[in-house]
Amino acid sequence: MLRFPLTALVIFLAVERLPGQTAKSVLLKPARVFDGVSREAHAGWAVLIRGDKIESAGPADEMKMPAETRVLDLPGMT
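^ that's the sequence the OP posted. Answer follows.
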């Protein structure tokens, strides 16, 4: 029950930036990711956020990300 609010807070803190800054990218690496298509969560997936938008989600080992991407490991989270 607490996982969603905590995850939302982590995402907010990860992508928050000061006005005028260029958009940064963040790779979130939780234990599982729901994609909104499958009924089950995907283990080993990651979510790439650029600026304030989700750019892509998929297998972490296949994720292409910009050079200055900040990686947030989120073990045990969905």
